[in-house]
Write a structure and sequence with these properties.
Layout lengths: L6 H5 L2 H9 L4 E2 H11 L8 H13 L3 E6 L7 E6 L1 H24 L6
Antiparallel strand pairs: 1-3, 2-3
Length: 113
């Protein structure tokens, strides 16, 4: 399992990670963080201080829609779902990440195997 990623590196990937997990369906904040952690093998686990500002910014940009829903256990929860615009944004971020990852791999001496 990879080690935890430094905060500054995670900060630049939060949007991509959030959009990726919401592509599969509607989730509330804690579920989003848990899904990111599970998919990354524990390498990424966004804090509330990075996750919620990213969710609010994505909602303001039209990439996400949010709604309050009642919960069986405890208070209402704010659920987020990706919009058509958000899917387009996700595609752009995936392309950017692929280019970044390739360039970084070349810069640090990785070779394609």
């Amino acid at each position: 399992m990879p080690g935890r990623i430094r905060g500054q590196l995670l900060k630049g990937t939060t949007t991509l990670l959030v959009l990726t997990v919401l592509r599969d369906g509607e989730l509330y904040g804690y579920e989003i963080a848990q899904r990111i952690r599970a998919r990354s093998g524990g390498a990424f686990f966004p804090s509330e201080g990075s996750l919620y500002p990213a969710l609010h910014a994505l909602e303001a940009d039209g990439a996400l829609e949010a709604s309050w829903q009642e919960s069986d256990r405890g208070p209402r929860r704010r659920y987020y779902k990706i919009t058509k615009s958000g899917l387009g944004m996700l595609a752009e971020h995936v392309q950017e990440w692929a280019a970044f990852s390739l360039g970084m791999g070349q810069a640090v001496g990785e070779r394609n195997r």
